[in-house]
Structure formats: structure tokens, C-alpha cells
Amino acid sequence: MQQRLFEDLIESDVVQHKTKQSLTLPVSIAIHAIVLLLVIVVPLLTSQDLPEPTSVVKAFFVEPAAAPPPPPPPPPPAPRQQTQPKPMATPIPTENKFQAPVETPEQVKPEEGIDLGVEGGVPGGVEGGVPGGVVGGVVGGLPDAPPPPQAVRVGGQIKEPKKLKSVNPAYPDIAKQARVQGVVILECTISPQGKVTDVKVLRGIPLLDAAAIEAVKQWVYSPTLLNGVPVPVIMTVTVNFRLS
């Protein structure tokens, strides 16, 4: 009895479950089919023009702002005022016309002209002399003095002049105390009169140079002639210093 009760319960449950599932599935499929048709078919039935691409692009992008207009050109420069040159007044030439004096002068002075000197000349004058010149002067003045002859160096045809006067050098005390002795070589320039005018040390000794120069400047030579004319000469001399 108990077993039958459970079987009835199971069968009744199975029958009821099959009945609900068989109704829900077709209804659900039908509803989905209707919704799908509405979504697909309805938009196709309503024909609308597609939007232009530019309008779509404008919806996403902002149009760039237009460039500002170019600035106006600068005004033309003002025309320069041409300055007209001032007319120069042309000088009116004045004619130097001789006008006779109204009154006759009492004394007529001779015109001052070039002084032609004294007619017949003056004693001691020369032909072609200048008025106011020095009596006994030379026309054109004296000639320029000839340039002094250049010094020549002894050697070859120029022989060494003869010494007429010789002065021994004074031995410096400091050189004696230091026991300094030796030879001082000097280059001398001798004037046409035979006097020593310039002295240079070629090889010397510091303690003895001044004494050698002082002595050589007192020497006198005979004049040196070149083509019969006395000329200055350059020569080398030696001064010996020896301790006794």
C-alpha cells in the first residue's frame, strides 16, 4: 500500500513536469522569433538617406579655425620734395674805362714801375746786376761749397800716414795693483790735417781702455793725400801696456 503511494506520487510529478515544459519552450521560441523579426525587418522597411561622410567627420573632429587675413600693406612713402637750386647771380662785368679827371692836377707824378737801375751803371757793378745789389758782387751768387771728402781706409794704394807726435799712455794705478797688462787695439779716424778725431775700441782691456784712448787722441800724423787732395783716413793702432 505504501509502495503504491510513492509510485503514484512519482508518476503524478512526472506528468505534471512534462506538461509545463512542453508549453514554455514553444512560447519562448515564438517570442524570440517575433522580437528578432521586429529588430531586423522594421529598420529595413523604413528607408532613410545615409548621412554624408563630412557630417559624420564633423561630429568627431573640430574644424580648424580659418587663418587671419594678411595685414594691410604699408602706406607708400611720401614723395620727396625736390629742392630747386637757387639761381646764382651772375656778376656783371665792370669795364675799366678811363675817365678824364674833372680838375687838372697841379703836379703829375710819374708811374712807379720796375727799377731799371742807374743809367750808365755804377762803379764796380757788373753787367746784368740786380738793382740794390752789393758792389763787387758776383752774378747768381757764390757756388755751393763742395761736399767734404769721405774717409778712406788704409790699405792698397792708401799708405799709412807718418806719425809726427806720439804720447805714451798713463798706466792706471788700479791696473798696476791688479797686475793687469796687455795690448789694446783701437780704430782711429784721422782728419785731413792729421789729427785724431774719432777712436773706437776693437779689442781692449776694461782697466786700460780709457788710458789708451786718451793717449791716442793726442797723436798727430802727416796729412794723407789722394790725387793731390788731403782726405781723412781710417787706420788701426795698438797700444801696449807692460809692467816693469
Query: What oligomeric arrangement do these chains adopt?
Result: single chain
Contiguous runs where pLDDT drops below 50 for at least 5 residues = 10-17
Structural class: alpha+beta
What is the overall pLDDT average? 75
Q: Tell me, briefly, the overall form.
A: elongated
Secondary structure tally: strands: 8
Q: Helix-strand pattern, N to C? A: HHEEHEEHEEEE
Give an overview in words.
By secondary structure, this protein is α+β, with helices and mostly antiparallel strands. The chain is about 25% helix and about 15% strand. The chain has helices at about 1-45, 55-60, 175, 210-215, and strands spanning about 150-155, 165, 180-190, 195-205, 220, 225, 230, 235-240. The strands form three sheets. The chain has a four-stranded mixed sheet with strand order 1-8-3-4. A two-stranded antiparallel sheet has the order 2-5. The chain has a two-stranded antiparallel sheet with strand order 6-7. The N and C termini lie far apart (about 185 Å). Residues about 10-15 have low confidence and may be disordered.
